[in-house]
Amino acid sequence: MKIATSAYPLDWFKDWTDYEAKLTAWVAEAAQEGASLLVFPEYGAMELASLDGPRVASDLKGSIRAVAGRVGASYNLHAALAARFGVHILSASAPVIEGGAVVNRAALFGPAGLIGVQDKQIMTRFEREEWGIAGASGGAGPLRVFDTDLGRIGILICYDSEFPLLARDLAERDVEILLVPSCTEALEGYWRVRIGAMARALEGQCVTVMSSLVGKEPRLYAVEENTGAGGVFGPPDRGFPPTGVIAEGRLDRPGWTYADVDLGAVRDVRADGHVLNLAHWPEQSLAVSRKAQKPAA
After folding, report:
1. Among 134, 222, 262, 270, which one is least packed by beta carbons within 10 Å?
2. Cα–Cα distance between 110 and 285 in angstroms, integer?
3. Around Cβ 54, how many Cβ atoms within 10 Å?
4. Which residues have a Cβ under 8 Å from the Cβ of 145 and sit 6 or more positions away?
5. What are the angstrom distances between the C-alpha of 77 and each of 20, 40, 201, 249, 252?
6. What's the total number of domains in the chain?
7. At what angle do helices 164-172 and 187-204 cross, to 10 degrees?
């Protein structure tokens, strides 16, 4: 399959038709290039706050409520575009208010409609301390596996990609593609997520797909400045590039990064790679327990 992953810039919209035109143009471009899976970044939906004007968009609580109120309409648009172009789309994540909690949620669509949603599990400091976003212990939904015509897909939103046990859980459920939508303000944040995505591809012998929010929009609270690039990574093993980098975009340059991916290569390295990281993972626990039981000198 061909995967398209985005370096997506935030815009300021006068009305809904501006947003609809932007998203349609992005999806159409990727579809015309032959992509069957399109990945948008974390918090890309925050640009919808612009539709409620500068005062709302510059206020944290106001922008969260405004964006959450438009998620349903956004999902309808994504579903229509996935059907029209015959593609799978991971929507840009958005704050969603559910059961009194605010969660950071991305949705996966296929040509037949909504496949399912994934909530971020572990919050960064600004999400905990400023936004009040709920993680796994506060109302976020569980890690899910999405069975699609393209393969088994899992989603680790930004910071989640930096925690190996989350990816391990998905790998043990035979996930072959991990989508990593991200929103990082500074260069070090981008590299934290990228290193996490590459490490998860190594450990799980799978393909990871990182998308990024890019550029500046000072009128949108908390996403005023963003650094990143699209990237697609695999295990540095037989059938993959020796660097593990299948494709990478240019830093902070808006647009799609494309990669041709053969999931047969994932299955081959899991079964008979030069190394077998996925199969050998449990041996870590054995090694650590042996050390703990060794008598002190």
Report:
1. 262
2. 39
3. 12
4. 152, 153, 154, 170, 173, 174, 175
5. 7, 14, 31, 26, 26
6. 1
7. 30
Query: How many Å is the Cα radius of gyration of the chain?
Result: 19
Tokens standing for 269? 């390295």
Q: Average pLDDT per run of 10 along the chain, which is 297 residues long?
A: 98 98 98 98 98 96 96 98 98 94 97 98 94 89 96 98 98 98 98 98 98 97 95 97 98 98 97 97 88 62
Give the pLDDT of residue 138: 84
3-state SS class at 285: helix
Q: Of 94, 90, 119, nearest to 4 (Cα)?
A: 90
CA distance 221 to 139: 24
Residue type, 42: E
Residue 275: count of CB within 10 angstroms of its CB: 14
State both tokens at 291: 């050390």
Report whether 240 contacts 11 (CB < 8 A): no
How many angstroms separate the CA atoms of 140 and 164, rounded?
19
Predicted TM-score of the model (pTM): 0.96
Q: Are 123 and 135 in contact (CB under 8 A)?
A: yes
pLDDT at 292: 63
> Which of 62, 76, 64 is CA-nearest to residue 23?
76
CB atoms within 10 A of CB 242: 7
* Residues counted in the chain: 297
Q: What is the extent of the structural domain holding 146?
A: 2-293
**CATH number, domain with residue 45:** 3.60.110.10
Element housing 104 (H / E): strand 101-110
The rounded distance, in Å, linking the Cα atoms of 297 and 294 is 9
